[in-house]
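Hey team,

Sharing the ABD12 lipase run so nobody has to redo it. Sequence (173 residues) first:
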Amino acid sequence: HPTESGFTTDVLALYDWAKARSGNSSILFWGHSLGTGIATNTARKLQEERGVQVDAVVLESPYTNIREAAAHIPITKIYRQFPGFGYLILDSLALGDMFFRSDENVKVLSCPLLILHAEDDDVVPPHLGRKLFETARSAYKDKTKVKFITFPKKLGLGHDYISSNPELPALVK
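Structure output:
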């Protein structure tokens, strides 16, 4: 069954494979939704265990940590009022060894970090992306390496369509 450490190990293997074939090309981690936790885990692991800094990390529709995300995603709203929600839902993630602590990971990263969030994201609330940005910005020595871009509701990008925005390549560059 999938585990947080398994995801991180897989991305490390993919990074090694890409790095061996990329020459001097930049390699960045781009995570979307759940993948943002995997991206920050892997970037942190590279930095702490190998002394390697990934060229950049882009987080699309991120959250602070999986427990906080699960507590705030709209699908859980009806269940939050019931006794045992924390234990049955939120604690079960921890029992499954799923934490995805992007809020802790960004505190130690030093590579460029770009956070993207749509104001009309109805899966991961935009305030979690903003909170992650604030955490990173307060921890980074070089504040210019941390950017946060929001996309207005009128664009209708929601949770899944930031990548389809035609301005995205220029924003990432």
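Strands lie at 28-32, 56-60, 113-118, 146-151.

Ping me if you want the raw files.
A.
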